Amino acid sequence: MTSYTRWSDTHNTWTRKEECHSGNVLAFTTHDGIEVWAGGSSRSGGWWLLDPLPDLAMGPDNEVRKGYGKLEVKSVAKNMEGWKCTEHFREKTPPAVLELDFPDFGIPWDCDIDFWEALALDIREQGVKRIHAMCMGGHGRTGIQLACLKWHLATEEERKAWPNANALISEVRTHYCNKAVEGEKQQKYVAWICGIPMGDTLGFHKYGGTTTTTSTTTHTGSKTLTAHNRALLECNKCDFTCWEDDDILDIQEGDGCGNPVCNHGEMIDVTDLLVKTNDSHDDKSYAICLTTLDVCSVPSAMAVGPLTVEAMETYVGKDWPKILGRMMSNNSKLTIRGKMLRNLNEALNVIQKGGHYSAPELESEGVLVVYTTSSCDPRIVTAHSVDWSNKKERGGKEWVKCGFCEKNMSPDRLSYALMYNKEGEKMHTICPDCMTTSGLQFDSRMSTVGGMHVCIDDETTYRLVDGVSPQGLLVTANVVKEEEKAIIIAEGKGHDHIVDDKQIAEGLKELGLTAEEIEGYYDAVGDEYEDDWEDDMALEEVIDLREYDDDSSDGGNKDE
After folding, report:
1. Which fold has domain 13-69+91-207?
2. What does the DSSP assignment read for 269-315?
3. 3-state class of 502 per DSSP?
4. What are the boundaries of each domain within the chain?
5. Residue 279 has what pLDDT?
6. Rounded to whole angstroms, what are the CA distances from 526 to 212, 257, 376?
């Protein structure tokens, strides 16, 4: 649609302006005849204005609810008993309405791949032939819904036309609105949900740019990777997660999964979802750390447990209500930290009043929260302890040195690993650079049980609450090798060390290095390393080993 908005005296011409959609637009029709409509409530759209009404309406909860009142018959008959005309007031039956927890400029965090796959199945099983997707402006959140629906309702042959999220969203923009999808985070979400690479970053009108594609590539190219700009990559098929790397593992966004037993998985960039914690629009996706009373990222979360008054007393202090109140007054509700503090306060109020978040069919230990992170956990050598008795103490995050390379890092990008030396084992913070050079990856510590319930390592079930609970938990682990028996050797400060995921995953229990594990290392890396075993590892300085066979040229047996 084109309009002419103003006269230019200088050039005696009208300024031509391209407008976007208005009202409800038929975005696409599936191969089996399902119509998918879309529109924004602020642009004369909405499911209640569609005639006939859709079989399924979906969108942000506060937007789709606007339609309920619109369907009520407003005409009134008084003193007209027996009049036949009153029997013919037009009544409208509301459709199936899917109210999504979907913040403006954000993503529906609790709607994962399984949700969209199940929704597509439901649509066909329920005989839905008319769908309406919406938000307020009909751009960002509506564009996400359209892209995900288009992919999951398409045939395998149709999907070949969209090799990445860029191509898929561009298709939506062509037939619906050129402003659909409003940010890189939203584009990455579409890629994750559809199990495809992100592709080139799109242009987004929200940032004052055009809505055309850019030349930015998803691969590193000539970009020098540092601990500060490495992307966190996650396989769309399995739990394999690692930092982007162009050297050791040579894994970048869009590449195949690094897990050899994975079935054709691709690596998706999840940095915005799991690491970056400074976007006030996404406060429902982040978790708060009780020790620092600040936002924490998924890689840095360490100790977790149920949210209770006892936990608040342990990690904040017996005067936690006053401390929490003081911190809320010091942090505006417009900031991400301010929002998180208020989310925590609201959850505590529910718990103290005897309320709970558990579904009746699922037993749970309560709301899951993060107790400590890699910068404040007492098991970390350089942990920072917050003194809340000091009224000037503001807690929060501060830059932390990596325990291996000693570079200053944002705590959001730090995780934790064990170092072994002559003095025994010590726990240190570890940055993305040191993780990749050590050959480390992440393992998931959390599995979904149903709805917003999750199960942690010890098989305890917890409830997740938006804006309070972590949306994921990761633990450093050895890179996946054959039979998952590899031992990762990494360079330390003046000595070598071994990082063992089993010890970390089991809560830092003291485990000895077995002969079978050494054998596993041989199996994984090959016999060519055995000749240099003594020089490379200096095992006598690391840990007490059992006897092992040396297959080097001298053919002898060496005793540690």
Report:
1. Protein-Tyrosine Phosphatase; Chain A (3.90.190)
2. E-HHHHT----GGGGGG-EEETTTTEEE-TTTB--EEE--HHHHHHH
3. helix
4. 13-69+91-207, 219-560
5. 62
6. 49, 22, 40
Q: Strand 400-401 and strand 408-409: pairing?
A: antiparallel
- 362 DSSP 8-state letter: S
User: CA-CA distance, 305 to 301, in Å (whole number)?
Assistant: 11
Q: How confident is the model at residue 362 (pLDDT cuts 50, 70, 90)?
A: low
Strands 130-135 and 56-60 turn out to be parallel
Give, in order, the Cα–Cα distances in Å from 227 to each of 220, 232, 406, 432: 14, 11, 12, 5
**3-state class of 421 per DSSP?**
strand
Per-residue pLDDT tens over the stretch 503-545: 433 433 343 444 555 444 445 444 433 344 333 333 333 333 3
Nearest C-alpha neighbor of 470 from the set 256, 298, 355, 349: 298
- 180-194, 333-347, 369-383, 533-547, range with the lowest pLDDT: 533-547
pTM over 0.85: no
Q: Provide the token pair at 526.
A: 């090959």
- State both tokens at 365: 């230990």
Q: Give Dmax over CA atoms of the chain in angstroms.
A: 111
How many alpha carbons lie under 13 Å from residue 175 in its C-beta half-sphere?
15
Half-sphere exposure in the Cβ direction for 201 (13 Å, CA): 15
Ramachandran bin of 507, using left for φ above 0, alpha for ψ from -120 to 50, beta for the remaining angles: left
Per-residue pLDDT of 49-70, as tens digits, reads 998 999 999 999 989 998 887 8
